């Protein structure tokens, strides 16, 4: 984190964005692993013999009741990781304002996690004088995104010969969609669609509908400023397109196996429920019928249901607020099977 702050405040521009994002992402991976170990959670995959990856650490920290990584905070980490991924493996361009707002949000979140898990303020390790500083204070996020979108549209105008720079900026805005979900990875197809949409005169909300859900909350001023990414309560509901007849800019390819990454057994384990009681709660909430929570994968003759973080979040809230015994009595899968069986001596369930 110190290295990220030093890179941000460096007078040298060469490689600055890359260094800031690389150090921010790495600092959080190490902090999350330390937090998990502190809570008795292993950070090694015994099958691979390697430590867990960044996304797995984010998920485990979000699931743990003592770490309490919220959805917006997890989104902040995923966005930093997505931008870092493009900086490290391809080419993107992050505007100074967007880099600053993510760096300050990272410092705020790092301090929150360090205090919450280890009871230590970041100020004990990082003097105020090295925090990310900008002469251009953060403005409303919607305004920043509009300015960036206008700049991209100008770069794509005929005769500018600036398509390469425009596509680099497009990659940054696509990476920012990681704030709203775990499945974001920027592909060339995504960039092509957005480029076509902008050249076709589409608005920002049509091209980047998921960014409409995003806003920032800013407290304090000067060196003590705190920035957090939050859900935009005024945003209209986003409709996701799934066919090529819809305007190209609105379509976003999603890695379904990354989004729906939990098996039924893994979901039950994460919720600390037996599998039958997990099935009962799923039925009560209609999880299996909700396309945002459940997806059925077909592999040859096999049909496997997998579940998303949306399912986990809804079920965790229900687990903590509902009368689970009443849910069990109403939706007990074993009892339902026995009741429906008409064969004498049947031992279904």
Automatic annotation (TrEMBL):
It holds the Pfam family DUF3644. Residues 1-140 form the DUF3644 domain. InterPro entries: DUF3644. This is DUF3644 domain-containing protein.
């Amino acid at each position: 984190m110190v290295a990220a702050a030093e890179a941000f405040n460096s007078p040298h521009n060469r490689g600055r964005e890359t260094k800031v994002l690389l150090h921010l992402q790495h600092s959080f991976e190490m902090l999350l692993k330390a937090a998990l170990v502190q809570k008795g959670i292993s950070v090694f995959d015994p099958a691979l013999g390697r430590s867990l990856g960044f996304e797995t650490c984010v998920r485990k920290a979000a699931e743990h009741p003592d770490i309490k990584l919220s959805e917006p905070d997890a989104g902040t980490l995923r966005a930093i990781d997505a931008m870092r991924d493009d900086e490290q493996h391809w080419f993107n361009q992050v505007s100074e304002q967007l880099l600053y707002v993510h760096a300050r949000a990272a410092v705020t979140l790092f301090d929150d996690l360090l205090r919450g898990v280890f009871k230590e303020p970041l100020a004990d390790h990082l003097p105020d004088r090295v925090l990310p500083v900008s002469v251009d204070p953060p403005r409303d996020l919607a305004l920043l995104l509009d300015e960036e979108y206008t700049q991209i549209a100008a770069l794509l105008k005929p005769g500018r010969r600036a398509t390469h720079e425009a596509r680099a900026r497009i990659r940054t805005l696509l990476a920012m969609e990681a704030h709203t979900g775990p499945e974001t990875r920027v592909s060339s197809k995504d960039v092509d669609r957005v480029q076509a949409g902008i050249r076709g005169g589409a608005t920002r909300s049509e091209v980047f509908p998921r960014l409409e859900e995003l806003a920032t909350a800013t407290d304090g001023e000067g060196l003590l400023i705190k920035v957090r990414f939050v859900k935009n309560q005024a945003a209209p509901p986003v409709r996701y397109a799934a066919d090529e007849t819809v305007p190209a800019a609105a379509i976003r390819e999603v890695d379904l196996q990354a989004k729906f990454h939990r098996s039924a057994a893994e979901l039950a384990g994460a919720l600390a429920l037996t599998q039958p009681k997990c099935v009962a709660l799923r039925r009560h909430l209609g999880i299996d019928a909700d396309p945002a929570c459940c997806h059925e994968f077909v592999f040859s003759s096999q049909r496997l249901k997998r579940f998303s973080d949306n399912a986990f979040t809804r079920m965790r809230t229900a687990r903590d607020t509902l009368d689970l015994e009443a849910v069990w009595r109403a939706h007990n899968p074993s009892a339902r099977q026995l009741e429906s069986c008409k064969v004498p001596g049947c031992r279904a369930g």
